[in-house]
Amino acid sequence: MTALVPRHASITSFKLAGLEIDWASLEELKSLRRLKKMTAVGIHINRRWISLISRCSNLQRLYLKLYDGNATSDNAALQKIALYAAAAAWPQLESIHFAEHRMVDDDLAILLSALKRCHFLDVCGFWPRSSQAFHKHFATIETLNLCKCPTLTSMMVQEILSSSP
After folding, report:
1. Does the N-terminal or the C-terminal CB of the chain have fewer CB atoms within 10 Å?
2. In the chain, what are the domains?
3. Could you say which DSSP state residue 68 is in?
4. What is the C-alpha separation between 157 and 91, in angstroms, rounded?
5. Are 112 and 135 in contact, with CB atoms under 8 Å apart?
6. What is the pTM of this model?
């Protein structure tokens, strides 16, 4: 693979939008550990992409809008992302935006439990397990978007607002 960036440069932010990418050609990149922000819009997430992004050990911000395709495969991808975060692949992850993709409650709970701190959260779906896991982030959350959370109750909103500094 031809180097696109001089060896001394360090990419810390990366955006993809609607591209068909040969993920196999990117697997040897050593600079992934320096990546801090990942934006992926309209791409199809597969095992190679999951493997690639799991090596981004300094990832702080993750924005995903998955390819409009099979909801079952989208849920499987989100589940793998939650499990990688839970496995401490991203110890610095603090900002999550899963643009309009509803996560299963258990997977969202795993992800929220794994985060050391959370400053920005934009997710669809908020149910009993994930709302309990979110409690530990009340002190650090700065931006919270729960507009697409139909099961969010008035009591939950009161609890979030009264527990925030």
Report:
1. C
2. 13-163 (3.80.10)
3. S
4. 28
5. no
6. 0.76
